[in-house]
Amino acid sequence: MSTINEKVKHLAPDLTKSFPGSPHAMLGGYVLSKRCVDKCRADLAGTIGEYHFDCPLDNIWLGFAGLKGADLKAFVATGADDEAVGKWIEEHATKRPRIEIIKWNNDLRYKRLSETPDEMQEFMEDYIPKNVPREVIHHVRYFFDIFDAEEKRFRP
Predict the structure, then answer these.
(1) Is 139 helix (H, G, I), strand (E, B) or coil?
(2) pTM for the complete prediction?
(3) Type and span of the H or E element at 31
(4) 65 and which of 45, 93, 117, 126 could share a cystine (Cβ 3.0–4.6 Å)?
(5) For 39-74, how does the pLDDT look when each residue is reduced to its tens digit (9 = 90+)?
């Protein structure tokens, strides 16, 4: 008998063949959350490929929400679907006024690379030319665009 919940296997994207959700995609009211959950499920199912769960990008959201990757992973491992995960996020995240979450989401949606921490800028200086297709690099205006361009959500 497999130790991986069959529901998790069914819900998990195969990140060796496709991409996690866009950083713009939301669960529980937060940007980055759907992408993080996709990677979590893929990690549990053994289909994460070159992606990483609980990585620095995931931790931008997890930190703001006051969640721990291990706690999220334990809940996702039960086979919870997106609706249930969204509810879990709402119940376990740090309680904040709705406008504070909206402002945080908008700040990230429209954050330029030059507004990210120095370590991120230094990392992306080499990452972008290696991973973002040249024919769409001109579309990259905001931090999230890097991922959408690399993962073919931009068209030339």
Answers:
(1) helix
(2) 0.93
(3) strand 30-31
(4) 93
(5) 999 999 999 999 999 999 999 999 999 999 999 999
